[in-house]
Amino acid sequence: MKKGILNLKSNFMSLRSNVLDLRKRKREVQKGGGDKAIEKQAKMGKLTARERILALLDKNSFHEYDLFVEHSAKDFGMESKILHGDGVIIGTGTIYNKPICIFAQDFTVAGGSLGMMHARKITKIMDHALKMRVPLIGINDSGGARIQEGVNSLAGYGEIFFRNTLASGVIPQISVILGPCAGGAVYSPALTDFVFVVENISKMFITGPSVIKSVLGEEITMEELGGARVHAELTGNAHFFSTSELECFEQIKKLISYIPRNNGTKALPFPPKPPKKGKKIEDIVPGDPRIPYDVRDIIKSVTDSSEFFEIMESFAPNIVIGFGRMEGDTVGFVANQPMVLAGVLDTDSSDKAGRFIRYCDAFNIPIVTLEDLPGYLPGVDQEHAGVIRHGAKILYAYSEATVPKVTVILRKAYGGGYIAMNSRHLRADFVFAWPTAEIAVMGPEGAANIVFRKEISEAENPEEVRQEKIQEYKKKFANPYVAAAQGYIDEVIEPKETRGRILHAMKVSENKSIALPRKKHGIPPF
Ligand code: HXC
Questions:
Q1: Each residue of 184-221: pLDDT tens digit?
Q2: Ligand 1 atom with least separation from CA of 40
Q3: Is the CB of 157 within 6 Å of ligand 1?
């Protein structure tokens, strides 16, 4: 009896010492690169990888894997180096109770550089995310390929890019750039769905300032070359911009609330709410088609609680994209912005809208299109920048999309713009037009100048004749009724009916089912 008790006691003691040993080991590894490196990270205004994960995920939801993984490099003195966790933390957790997989590169450990084991940890969590069909979030803060590990680092990146591509359109992939993301490393974020950047912290470029200086003799700072603003405003590589890491995490959480966890399901509905009482929808659009207005006010007048989560706000602002909810369900909005370049389509706005349409289509999110544009942007710059192939992307994306698609023509719908903005001909399910809609090959002024050129130039009073012809053309075409007579639009509606008609259209389309021709995949314009 006494012996039994002694055995139990010694078992307990041994387990206890093992547990204490485990805790000690964990504490050691969790220190990452150590106090000095952590201090340096803080001085740069950056959280550590672990702090980032804990700030982003639901409290107590994070579970870490591969904590004890070590690097296997042997060259350049690496054999004696200890790199805790090999510079990356991986695990699972929840955001608003929705499961996610996550990795965060730890800059305090060898600059978050990517060696073979570091890459293996990332690919392990990517495989997990794809298998479990849950979103993947990657926090990038790294000096790129670990120079001492040579081709093994390059192989690691290749394995990541392959998985990014495999997972594309199956699970949401979110990249958060919270430090350097240099060289080929930038191609993983570029292959994912949404890229988040933070002012003064994010830096993304293929070749850094020193290489640019030595090869081209050009001097530029890291911030000017690949800082957050550059990617949010100029290059279009970033979808969300914020001024602090914590603000960035709030944006990520919001995004997660709008999107489904994979392509086999829909976004979880929220409790339905009416739009806020504000400016009446019929008072937003000026009667004079030359006067601009903010199309986001129209979106907010139809969404629940008048909320709109805009994506790529500062890039190609002549088109507006983002998510809202209608009767609790997520809807993707694509809208021309008359406040910027009269809402024309150009290379950047076509890229921006085309990709968003494909995202919504891949993840079962219905699309509402609000149209008011004079067409594609003319000019040598645009032609030489490839507006033909860029502009084709939006046509391709709408034509290919099989989710419910509703269009509301608010004002101008001219030329290629009329066709491109989810027209009946690209298989919109419902097309509504306000009585202010003008659907024609081009604007009345341009049309009159071309069609009646001879009559105008030969007239005694050319300007008077020109104005007459403009009025004649306006009367004939600058309205929605010619298109309505052809059945190209389904109904001319009053502005105040807009939310109700969209909601009804969505309800009717709930079980929409159409089959596209069988193919391996299409070849979208690039
Ligand atoms: C190994 C690296 C590293 C790397 C940084 N470190 N980058 N170690 N391989 N790629 C280490 C540093 O030696 C240092 O180690 C620690 O990380 C912190 O780096 P610092 O230079 O002290 O930090 P900082 O001054 O903040 O500068 C950060 C940096 C700089 C701008 C990222 O480190 C840098 O320029 N790194 C190299 C970037 C690069 O050229 N990467 C390769 C890109 S090519 P100690 O021990 O001193 O703390 C590439 C190819 C991929 O990625 C291709 C895929 C297709």
A1: 899 999 999 999 999 999 999 998 898 899 999 999 99
A2: 26
A3: yes
Q: How far is the CA of 54 from the centre of ligand 1 (A)?
A: 25
Q: What is the CA(63)–ligand 1 centre distance, in A? A: 28
The hierarchical CATH code for the domain 30-258 is 3.90.226.10
Nearest atom of ligand 1 to the alpha carbon of 112: 17
Asked whether 180 lines ligand 1 (CB < 6 A), one says yes
Cα 73 to Cα 116: distance, rounded to the nearest angstrom = 8
- Does residue 183's CB lie within 6 angstroms of at least one atom of ligand 1? yes
Ligand 1 pocket test target in 43, 44, 46, 113 with most atoms within 8 Å of CB? 113
pTM for the full model?
Answer: 0.95
* Ligand 1 center from residue 114 Cα (angstroms): 10
CA neighbor of 70 nearest in space, from 35, 25, 19, 136? 25
The residue assigned the tokens 């204490």 is 20
Q: What is the pLDDT of residues 233-249, one digit of tens each?
A: 999 999 999 999 999 99
In the chain the first and final C-alpha atoms are separated, in Å, by 79
Q: Can you say whether the dihedral through the CA atoms of 110, 113, 114, 118 is positive or negative?
A: positive
Domain at 281-443+478-508, CATH from 3.30.160.20, 3.20.20.80, 3.40.50.300, 3.90.226.10: 3.90.226.10
CB distance 144 to ligand 1 below 6 Å: yes
* pLDDT attached to residue 1: 58
CA 197, CA 176: separation in Å to the nearest integer? 6
Domain boundary assignment for the chain: 30-258, 281-443+478-508
pLDDT 10s digits, 127-178:
999 999 999 999 999 999 999 999 999 999 999 999 999 999 999 999 999 9
